[in-house]
Every structure is written in structure tokens, then in C-alpha cells.
Beta-xylanase
Amino acid sequence: MQSALALFALAAVAPLSASALPATATAAASSALPTATSVVSGLNALARAAGKLYFGTATDNTTPEFTDPTYLSILENYNQFGQLTPANAMKWMYIEPEAGVFNFTLGNQIADLTEEYGMVLRGHNGVWYEELPGWVTSTDWNATGLAYAVQRHVSGIVGHYAGRVYAWDVVNEPLNDNGTMREDLFYNALNTTYINIALEAARAADPNAKLYINDYNIEYVGTKSTAMQNLIKQLQSEGVPIDGVGMESHFIVGEVPTTLVENFQAYEALGLEFAITELDIRMELPATDELYEQQKQDYYTVVDACLQVSVCRGVTVWDWTDKYSWVPSTFAGYGDACPWDANYTRKPAYDGIAIAFEGQSI
Ligand SMILES: *[C@@H]1O[C@H](CO)[C@@H](O)[C@H](O)[C@H]1NC(C)=O
Ligand SMILES: *[C@@H]1O[C@H](CO)[C@@H](O)[C@H](O)[C@H]1NC(C)=O
Ligand SMILES: *[C@@H]1O[C@H](CO)[C@@H](O)[C@H](O)[C@H]1NC(C)=O
Ligand SMILES: *[C@@H]1O[C@H](CO)[C@@H](O)[C@H](O)[C@H]1NC(C)=O
Ligand SMILES: *[C@@H]1O[C@H](CO)[C@@H](O)[C@H](O)[C@H]1NC(C)=O
């Protein structure tokens, strides 16, 4: 869209001043809980002014959110979102439902939107142990057969979107929380070589895409992060292409790790870039004023940690409104994890993000 491109250019030239544009979210508070007071033009505009590539969001065209005009009217605002990750559309069960038969319909819809809106596209994902089609989970694989299937899958999807994707989560969640390799069907047939096969296929299919491994509980100093760094070193020693690590960052209010920056610097020291790829900060319901204020502080802490390490490319939230968050259905009793509430009102968490990108202290 022309407006998105114009804003893109503006953001690249000079920081948008907080007073230059009117607040866009002035919806009246719909509950007693506090709402954002920030009058900044948008989180992506602030992220870009701060030297990051984007502030972005996951979005899911396999769910009703894509038929919700209010949702879409905010999603398309480049000032707020400069990057999209398809939450489901590019996962194996959707994109290669039959062996060697690709269906790019849903993936193309998100890829086309990023271009229409002038946004960056993150490919998600290549190889993961969940959301697999039946033909993958029900086959009694030998190593040769599965190596071929992984190579064909990654070549097929990365090749289809070649030139349109900033970064791919080529391998998703390969580690257990105790730092051992997850013993999924890929590991059981191929040991860690499935990771090599996937990364090499991705590089060959799109030499310009940044190739990432994405995981959770690697955002802070600990066993799992050390294991991820060891895996990266092993890949590097074998000459396998690897450019970055995705820090998922599904956190809990009041429990955001204190070693984010130190941990991020360890990845930087390996010559990698990284991104915050799936940020949300959930609270035990019911929400209170105090939890909302702590959540504001917590969002600030995460975004500020990204700003402190130059190779942090951007921050992606795992959808931006509580209306469509995956949290309540996954973590019983928890919710309200996003920067916008279920009525599309900006929460104090929004201010926490904005204040961090502005380089202010909270
Ligand atoms: C959304 O609005 C409805 C009615 O307008 C209200 O009952 C509800 O509490 C609001 N939800 C939130 C999260 O503010
Ligand atoms: C491809 O996926 C779309 C979206 O889910 C679906 O409507 C369509 O029927 C699929 N095409 C084929 C050939 O299965
Ligand atoms: C391995 O599996 C493939 C099919 O996935 C099959 O064609 C091939 O014969 C198998 N090889 C061995 C050695 O069992
Ligand atoms: C690590 O975690 C996995 C998955 O929970 C478990 O199967 C395995 O036994 C654990 N290994 C060790 C050494 O604790
Ligand atoms: C995977 O390879 C490593 C290193 O060669 C080896 O120690 C481990 O036992 C292998 N795992 C399996 C399940 O074969």
C-alpha cells in the first residue's frame, strides 16, 4: 500500500516524534483495568527509529481472526507492525499435506499481505515435531527415506518463497528443557543430521534468507541455552549454514528472566544474529491493576534487552490482541498476555514496549 511505503520511508529518515501524530487508539476504557497512555505513533515506527528492523506479530489465517475486520484494520497498520509471522499457514500439515504435494494457498495469503503492507516476512517453520501431516507421523521411516522427505520439504517451501522471506525458522524446538535432543521422529531416524539436512536445503533454496533455529527457554542463561550454543558450535564446525537463533520468549508476568542480556551476548559472540520471535507475557487470571503494571515493566525489560544487543534484529509478539492469543487454551488459568486487550484497547504493556524503544527508562 502506498501509505505503508510512505511511512516506511519516513521512519527510515527520522524518528517519528511522539507529538507529530495523533494517538490512534483512543477507545474508551471498557473495564476498570488501566489502559495505555502512550501517544506514540506506533511500535514499528519506534522500533525502526531505534535501529531495529521491525516490531512485528504472528498472525493466523487458519482461524477466525482473519475474518474479523477490526483485527485486520489494526494488523495492516505499518506504523504498528513491520513484520508478520504466519502462526500456522506454513507449517508442514498445511503446506505439504500429501507427500511431495505442496499447497501454498494459506502461506501465499500471508506472504502477499506482507508485500501489500510493506512488511518483512518471517518463514515459520521448516522442521518441527508438531503439526505434521499424517503421512509423516504414520510412516515407519528409515534414515534414507526421512532424509529425502526433509530435504524435499525444506527445499519446496523455502524455494517457493525465495527472495520474499527475511528469515526462516528452519528448525523449530529441537531441544528438551534439560538440554538433550528432543527424541522426535526426525532425531530417532537421523540423529542430529536432520538439522544439517534442513539448513543446507534452505541455504540452497534461498541463499539470501537468514536461517534460524527457534526454541523456548533458551532466552536466559541455563542448561538449555548452553545446549543450544553447543549445537550451534557443532553446526558451525561442520560448515553447516546457520545465521541466527529465535528466542521465543513466552514469559509469565513477574517472572521474566534476569539474564536476558548476558545470554543474548553469548549468541552474539558466536557470530549469530537473533530475534525475539514469539513474545507474550501471561498472567494468572483474574487480571488486576498491579498485574497490568508488572506486565508493562516486563515488556519493557524484554524489549530493552533486545535494544542492548545490536544483533537483535527485532521483536515479534505471538499475536497482539488477547482476543486471539493461544495462551488461555494452552495454559489453564492464564491469559491477558498481549499488548492489546480483547477489545483492542492498548494496555499498559503497550506503553512498556514504546518506552523501551524510545530509549527512556520506565
Ligand atoms: C470488553 O468489553 C466488554 C463490553 O463492552 C466488557 O464486558 C469486557 O469486560 C471488556 N473486556 C476487556 C478485556 O476489557
Ligand atoms: C489448499 O488449501 C486451501 C486452504 O486450506 C484449500 O481451500 C484448498 O482446497 C487446498 N487445495 C487442494 C488442492 O487441496
Ligand atoms: C527406506 O524407505 C524408503 C521409503 O521411505 C524405501 O523406498 C526404501 O526401500 C527403504 N530402504 C531400506 C533400506 O529399507
Ligand atoms: C531429558 O528430558 C527428556 C524429555 O523430558 C527425558 O526423556 C530425558 O530422560 C531427560 N534426560 C535426562 C538426562 O534427564
Ligand atoms: C546421536 O549421535 C551422538 C553423537 O554421535 C551419539 O552420542 C548418540 O548416541 C546418537 N543418538 C542416537 C539415538 O543414536
